[in-house]
Amino acid sequence: MGELPDQERSAEIEAIRAALIDGENSGEPRAFTVAAFKQRMHATHG
User: Fold this and answer.
1) Phi, psi of 8 (to 5 degrees)
2) Does residue 26 lie in a domain region?
């Protein structure tokens, strides 16, 4: 796999940076339980 041109690499890095900032600004973390997740997915998607 070859290296990306500088412009493409810069765009990818900026997209990652923006996603990290969005995650940091999304609020406090919430508890996660597999059982509750499965229940929500089953209710939503059958």
Assistant:
1) -65, -45
2) yes
